[in-house]
Amino acid sequence: MSQINIGIDQANRQEIAAGLNKVLADTYSLYLKTHSFHWNVTGPMFNSLHQMFEDQYTELAGAVDVIAERVRALGERALGSYSAFAAVTGIKEDSGVTDATQMIQELLEGQEVIIRNARNLYPLVNQANDEATADLLTQRIQLHEKTAWMLRSLLQN
Fold first, then answer.
1. How many other CB atoms are there within 10 angstroms of residue 16's CB atom?
2. Which of 6, 105, 137, 152 has its CA 20 to 30 A from that of 49?
3. How confident is the model at residue 2 (pLDDT cuts 50, 70, 90)?
């Protein structure tokens, strides 16, 4: 394979890719959880939550591809197995939750995990002048903050 010469040294590329792989693992884990909740939600808000969860998991499914491709563009291997994701994710697995309010709370917490982990990458990304990753992170944070706000709003009386 030819040498990567994109203006970011190898050590920074590896560290940024490791951080992105964590965001990838979190995103994929939240995708799985959201999809499960979509299938299993019940109660008076079924229709609206079923649709909302579908919108959310569909967006997350697209996001994993974008994040993984950025890892590859940095010259590193993107994580791609359940066990690899489980080893680094901060998202708790669906443990059989059946209460819609608890589902919303857990998805909110998952959104916030991704926001924090994406935001934690900024100092390194900025120091490495990695504008492409900064842009990706900005877009992801903006989307996850909006989704978190919407979920949080459902929990208010």
1. 24
2. 137
3. confident
pLDDT digits (tens, 9 = 90+) for 54-73: 999 999 999 999 999 999 99
| pLDDT tens digits along 109-151 | 999 999 999 999 999 999 999 999 999 999 999 999 999 999 9
Q: Note whether residue 2 is domain-resident.
A: no
Q: How far is CA 146 from the centre of its chain?
A: 13
- Residue given tokens 């998202």 in the structure block: 91
Instruction: Please give the tally of structural domains in the chain.
Output: 1
3 state DSSP class of 95: coil
Contacts of 7 (CB under 8 A, 6+ apart): 129
- 68, 17 Cβ separation under 8 angstroms: no
Domain at 100, CATH number: 1.20.1260.10
**How many whole angstroms separate alpha carbon 141 and alpha carbon 135?**
10
> Residue 51: which domain range?
10-155
Contact 133, 121 (CB under 8 A): yes
**Which amino acid type is present at position 134?**
A
